[in-house]
Amino acid sequence: MELQLLRPPSISYNCSPKLTLRYRKKKLNPGIPSKFFTISANKVSRLVISSKNASETDTAVVVDKPPQLPPRFEVFSGYPTPFGATWRDGGVNFAVFSSNATSATLCLISLTDLPEKRVTEQISLSPQTNRTGDVWHVFLKGDFQDMVYGYCFDGSFSPEDGLYFDSSKILLDPYAKAVVSRGEYGALGPGEDCWPQMAGLVPCTTDEFDWEGDLPLKFPQRNLVIYEMHVRGFTKHESSNSKFSGTYLGVVEKLDYLKKLGVNCIELMPCHEFNELEYYRMNFWGYSTINYFSPMARYSFSGIANYGLGAVNEFKHLVREAHKRGIEVIMDVVFNHSAEGNENGPVLSFRGLDNSAFYMVAPKGEFYNYSGCGNTFNCNHPIVRQFILDCLRYWVTEMHIDGFRFDLASIMTRSSSLWDAVNVYGSAVEGETLTTGTPLSAPPLIDMISNDPVLHGVKLIAEAWDCGGLYQVGMFPHWGIWSEWNGKYRDVVRQFIKGTDGFSGAFAGCLCGSPDSYQEGGRKPWNSINFVCAHDGFTLADLVTYNNKHNLANGEDNKDGENHNNSWNCGQGVPMFYMGDEYGHTKGGNNNTYCHDNFINYFRWDKMEEASSDFFRFCRLMTQFRHECESLGLNDFPTAERLQWHGHAPGMPDWSETSRFVAFTLIDSVKGELYIAFNTSHVAVTVTLPERPGYRWEPLVDTGKTAPFDFFSDDTPDREIAIRQYAHFLDDNLYPMLSYSSVILLLSPDETM
């Protein structure tokens, strides 16, 4: 039997009664087997099916002839740059990289066809006219109304060679500026599918946003107070009373709170598009990126409305409104791995485009796993490092982002798959024997980012380690501009505060900006991002409450999360802003809450109100004090002209193994002179203060006192009465300190003389 269609064979037609003609791969419907996708079109009104053999005359069944419709698109060869979908010259240019594919198809999908995994229109790309080098491209003019797009690529499916081409998969363009898929957070797709089909936004001339003259704030980094936060978790709890809970707009509603707290920089945990329901298990944190150019659509109030452009504009609105309040916005970006996992993971984008280019693979196709998440982004491959640079530029120029914190940034310093000097530098280097994943002293990607004119002046913060054992705190290739999450600071402060032997000297170094880690390399104190608590570990309250982690609720038999917490239930806390620490948020001892979309990770606005006159007040006043002190935001490391160390007696610091006391005086051009001391012993002490003739020390902070007398602000009730209670000590130049407490005293003129 011979099948004849009266329209071009790029579309399958629905006949009445219910009948779909599905065409075999590599014939009438190349690249899209019917078991995965169908190609929809208007109903056929005439179909001819003929049957004959050598001894029979022709017979035919005639059905109404389909209407002759004009083509929806004019198709041209297109341009190889820029990558992605770009509006230009009255149409849209599509360009995508794939070096190993044998064929490529642009798939245009209507919003009604997307949930059904149907392709509405497909454009086959010719290797002769639609390919330049390793870039496939096409330019279309026509009606893109209600259309999103993706690609199909064919080629070798050979995992042992690192190739995963599968023409049954519609792939997301890595350069898509918005992702359209599920619109509701936590809701599965059609048929309870946790990986429903995704597609990219087709741009148009109306994609505009009113920035109202917004410009970068460009705060000196030494003046920042960074607040790490989760967009959904910040306002999702019912006590937030937010009209837009759990969204970018919800954060906007609370920006004035952050301003009051003294925060001038928010660091957003991952806001790139990710799947919170991957593998039917909640991924709350978002460290599993699908697309790096797109803001997470389900963090927006509008979801996928307007083809995902609503999410883009809501994110821009958040940045603009933060800037109006003097708050910079830093993004936590995850260029160390993607959501596609190892060889058993889904084929969503990079893997189907060119797996061996985008991921580190061994000679037999195995995935390197320096990320601990199944795959490792091939960051120093030429096409990948260009992709990362393009992405960072986009978020700075189009989204007005002020900086980036790079998750597991040490992976970005490792050599790529098939590394060789010719590949990178254009010529061989004598004696070079680098293998895949070898740390590089001058990684091309870091070099490109550091010297890029568009990225000049933005904050660049490295989490300077990875899961492959590479630890580069104080040694990350920096070009004089990179900062680091100072994990050494975190560990030393925790050890000293809980009273561990041998840490007084190291703690003193931390207070000076960690010169042992950063001074020799030519960096400054502000290159050290000092933190004690962050999202992946105990909260500040749990740090001083629990001896061990309590992660059974994660469903991993308490085997996940860090065991080396350096915690002790001593009741003492150090001010550090991770979302919720300012009021003493607890996660019940769970130090790895990546999978909880509930009160464990939600900011508790009711608890904050309860602490408004207690710990929150203390944190707010300490932040204000930090902004007011010139000496706490120095552009260089302090010297003996400004800083003097003390012990229980002036000028006699104790750096012995058993020391539990560190004190110093600091000259400040605004506050005069400060005396700051930490007693982490279980024994109270009375310290002798440095003599300053004509002046008198007065208490400002004493964490051993109950609120509001832990911080003597101008509005502290009965302030003068409370201060006079110290008079008999201060008259003798003494001050009593309780165990596990810290104090700040200010030098004032002695009015009694």
TrEMBL record:
CDD domains: AmyAc_Glg_debranch (cd11326), E_set_GDE_Isoamylase_N (cd02856). Residues 228-626 form the Glycosyl hydrolase family 13 catalytic domain. It comes from the Eukaryota. InterPro entries: GH, GH13_cat_dom, GlgX_Isoamylase_N_E_set, Glyco_hydro_13_N, Glyco_hydro_b, Ig-like_fold, Ig_E-set, ISOA1-3-like_C. Pfam families: Alpha-amylase, CBM_48, ISOA1-3_C. It is found in: Plastid, Chloroplast. Keywords: Chloroplast, Plastid, Transit peptide. Belongs to the glycosyl hydrolase 13 family. This is Glycosyl hydrolase family 13 catalytic domain-containing protein.
